Automatic annotation (TrEMBL):
Organism classification: Eukaryota, Sar, Alveolata, Dinophyceae, Peridiniales
Name listed for the protein in its UniProt record: RNA polymerase III subunit Rpc25 domain-containing protein
Species the sequence originates in: Zooxanthella nutricula
Family: Belongs to the eukaryotic RPB7/RPC8 RNA polymerase subunit family.
UniProt keyword annotation of Nucleotide-binding present: no
Residues in RNA polymerase III subunit Rpc25 domain copies: 89-173
Gene Ontology cellular component annotations, sorted alphabetically: RNA polymerase III complex
Top-rank taxon, per record: Eukaryota
Annotated keywords: DNA-directed RNA polymerase, Nucleus, Transcription
RNA polymerase Rpb7-like N-terminal domain ranges (all copies): 9-64
Compartmental location: Nucleus
One BP annotation, GO: transcription initiation at RNA polymerase III promoter
Residue ranges that the Swiss-Prot or TrEMBL entry lists as coiled coil: none
């Protein structure tokens, strides 16, 4: 679920911060730039981990307007990123249901989609309650039981893919999320956590 990613970047330190420990300033700049942001094809940055290499800084002359004589350090550093692997099982909270499927939240990450085609069969959509239903049938008694995907329920799902949609223009960039998880609840043990007692 979480992994380390090595990043190589030029990180500025302002002249007013030269008197302080430059490593503290570099860490602060890195956290401001990367934490809580999606790194394309890598994942959601959760935290700064450590420095791998810090090279000598290059100080550029300032003009007193746009540039103020910042020192740019070429830095290699590790970040903790969230990027689950395919077939990993996770638990999220059901935030909404539509005819297209389920939307889940992991708390720190909101973009989890379960398409209707990835639900446990047989299933149906209750348009009146805006809720998906797993229509379970007991093979021994032939009894039918409806299990509802209720809002805010904890849902266990498996990861089908982690996508990084590419924006095709300014408008597309507003609509698309930079990272999306597509999941499925099509196996025993998956679906609402309350359906599966822990002792079974």
């Amino acid at each position: 679920m979480f992994t380390l990613v090595l990043i190589d970047d030029d990180i500025p330190v302002q002249p007013t911060d030269f008197r302080d420990d430059y490593r503290v300033q570099l860490k602060r700049q890195i956290e401001s730039k990367y934490v809580d942001r999606v790194i394309p094809n890598a994942g959601l940055c959760i935290a700064f981990y450590d420095f791998a290499n810090i090279k000598d800084a290059i100080v550029y002359p300032g003009d007193g307007k746009l540039a103020c004589g910042e020192a740019y350090f070429k830095v290699e550093f590790n970040l903790v990123v969230f990027r689950p692997i395919v077939d990993e099982w996770l638990v999220g909270s059901l935030s909404s249901s539509t005819e297209k499927g389920l939307s889940l939240s992991l708390g720190f990450f909101q973009e989890v989609e379960i398409p209707s085609s990835n639900l446990r069969t047989p299933y149906t959509f209750d348009a009146l309650q805006q809720m998906w239903v797993w229509q379970y049938r007991n093979a021994d008694t032939m009894e039918h039981i409806n299990f509802f995907y209720e809002k805010d329920e904890l849902v266990r799902f498996r990861v089908m893919s982690v996508d990084f949609p590419e924006a095709t223009g300014p408008e597309a960039n507003k609509r698309e999320t930079p990272m999306k998880i597509v999941g499925a609840v099509d196996r025993d043990g998956l679906g609402c956590v309350s359906w599966w007692p822990e002792n079974e």
